[in-house]
Amino acid sequence: MNGSKRSSYSTKIGKFNGKLKDILSSSRQRAEIKEPKVADIKNFSNVPIIKQFDNTRLLPKYTSILSRTGDEAVVMDDLDQLQQDLEKLLCTNAVRTRFFLGEYNQTDQKDSQQDKKAHDKTSLKRKRPDEKPKFKDVKNGLRVVKKDPSRFYNENAYQEIPKIALPRNDNSDKFWASIEPYCAAVSNDDVAFLDTLIQEFSKDIDLRIPDLGEHYATAWSDELLSDEQNIGKSPTKKTTNSDFKKNGLHAIVESIIRNAENDIKINKLETPDISKFKHNEHTDHKNGICLEKRLLKQFIGQGIFVQDHSNKDIPEDEILSEIKKCQQELLTVNRYNLEELNKLRSVVRNDIHCNQLKDDLDKIDKEILDLYSIMVEKKALHRKANALLRQQHVLNREINNMTDMSMLY
Amino acid sequence: MPLTADAVAAQQVQERLKLLYGIIQDIENKRSLCEQSINTLQRFSNDDKGLNSQKTKSLIKNAMAQTDAEREAIENALQKIHEIRNIKNERRIKARTSTSNKEAIRRGTWIKMLLSSAQTLPLFVGKVGEKAPPLCGAIPAERNYVAKVGDTVVALAKLVDKEDWIVAEVVSYNPGTTKYEVEDILKEQNQKDRHTLGKGRVIPLPLMRANPETNPEALFPQGKVVLALFPQTSCFYKAIVYKQPTTHTDEYEVLFEDSTYPEGYSPPCNVAQRYMVPYKQRMKGSTSAASTSQGGGSDSDSEDTYSKS
């Protein structure tokens, strides 16, 4: 009771009249909307196909008809079985078409992506030749010649693509290589290094501030005197003269003081004073003269200045206190650094522990992956077993049908 | 006259059988070409590791072209097979209408024929992007579709005391009254073998099977309420799709509505794609009642079948 009266296959012809070109072009449009159903299998080792050496096993009726010869090669009784075999072939064929289509689209997409990235301009050129060159051709016949070089260039472009891609990868590798030492896992060496640092920082620094030396002016005049003595013995007047020349300011002050003394005390103290003064002058030279001190002494002595003891120490203390302040600051910084180093050390210790845990985790991960792959293999076996069972079932049913049909007649 | 017509039909069949043999040889050639191109592709992809995509593409294209050629040849062969079946079927219908002393076909034979018809129903394997046409698998017929004479349909017919969806063959269609005349395939069991029914009471059965691998959209989804042929009977009852077929030879697994079971449904039964039609909501009352009464009685029916065959 075959209810279908009309030939069903004639109604089957749809949009594409079975033309490969149509299918390809339409599928390319669709690929943007819908991903191909077939999984990504790069090697073509499992293309869905019924191989010819499987004929006898999978397509029994088909094979037996193939081997027959003569007029009565196919008889009515063969049709049911033959139909099933052919349908099996057709289904595999349809699945294969989809498989190839998926592969083709993938390769195509990859290609066009590379194309776009590497040669935007050339790809633009390639898109247009249908319109523009024609337009130009009409205008200017010479342009026709230009078509060929551009095509040649495009062909070259395909080969150049990998070369361009490689250095880019290299750069990223370099970048990661430069980053790596900073991201490396902490080791015991790092702890040791931190320990030495902490030791160094926790040492007490014995910073002694030397006692205050002679004022530079005093030191200079001392030097001057010794220089003079070394040169040779000279009269005092000459010395004063040389004073005038060598140390102008100093000598002027001296003479001013001398004059002032003379003016005031000229009457009372005549000869002895001068000799005394002369002697003083000498001793002054001997001991070295601090300009400031002397001026101050003189001013105080003459009552211009009031002696102030507290003032005397101030310039010396200012620097000392500055030094001490700086020292204090450095000490606090050091203390802070030490604290931080200690913190860091504890963090590093924790991290080392973490690393150990990570190693353990990696090991377990690997074991799980191994197990999983074993399971997948077993699952594949299971699937194969199922497929075999299904085949067995189909064959069984076929046998049953055969016996049923034979019982009818 | 009938003799000559028969002779012509037999000649036509013989012609096609001969052609079929040639086509099968052709298929084998196409297959070997196809296998060759695939082998080349495999070898190339192993050596090349996907570096030369242009070449890969051209090889794939080549393999696709071969596959396409193979498909055309296979479809051609199947077409011939269906042509032969159609010629046979036409002869059968002619014989039934012209002669009155038709041989009564027994119930068991009918059941077997129903089964084999389910298996030999043309298979629809859609090309890429091609949707299944109406009356393929679960796709319903178009609104104004009229079943042809000799087509198998499901008809809501009044049997002795109740209404049932039965398997019937279209005898004629009156466009004026939009009524079908259908013939119950089990004539000898039911007194009244011809029914005149409105269009709404006749559901055409699918004319093609859908291939689950390429056209899953033409399958009833799991949980869908359908009318399905109860095994070993010629009656359709309300059922729920339990499992879809996974290959083109697979059958559906359905749960029939049956109040004799505590869950209200029978255990899963296998039903071929050919004997599944969408359930019509407005007939709800009559069918569910019928299924209840008939579901229980199916055991005795099947026993009857075996004793007769």
From TrEMBL, chain A:
Pfam families (alphabetical): Ada3 (PF10198)
Keyword vocabulary terms for this entry: Nucleus, Transcription, Transcription regulation
Stretches that traverse the bilayer: none
Example of a GO cellular component annotation carried by this entry: SAGA complex
Region Disordered, residue ranges: 107-133
Biased composition (Basic and acidic residues): 108-133
Matching InterPro entries: Histone_AcTrfase_su3
Superkingdom as given in the UniProt entry: Eukaryota
One of the GO BP terms on file: regulation of transcription by RNA polymerase II
Keyword presence, Nucleus: yes
Location in or out of the cell: Nucleus
Main subcellular location: nucleus
One Gene Ontology MF term: transcription coactivator activity
Family (UniProt): Belongs to the NGG1 family.
Protein name: Transcriptional adapter 3
Organism of origin: Rhynchophorus ferrugineus
UniProtKB/TrEMBL annotation, chain B:
UniProt KW Zinc keyword: no
UniProt keyword annotation of Transcription regulation present: yes
Domain SGF29 C-terminal: 143-285
Region described as Disordered: 282-309
CDD domains attached to this UniProt entry: Tudor_SGF29_rpt1, Tudor_SGF29_rpt2
Pfam families assigned: SGF29_Tudor
Classification via InterPro entries: SGF29, SGF29_tudor-like_dom, Tudor_SGF29_rpt1, Tudor_SGF29_rpt2
Compositional bias annotation for Acidic residues: 300-309
Keyword entries, A-Z: Coiled coil, Nucleus, Transcription, Transcription regulation
Record's GO cellular component terms: ATAC complex; nucleus; SAGA complex
Compartment annotation: Nucleus
Name recorded for this polypeptide: SGF29 C-terminal domain-containing protein
Lineage: Eukaryota, Metazoa, Ecdysozoa, Arthropoda, Hexapoda
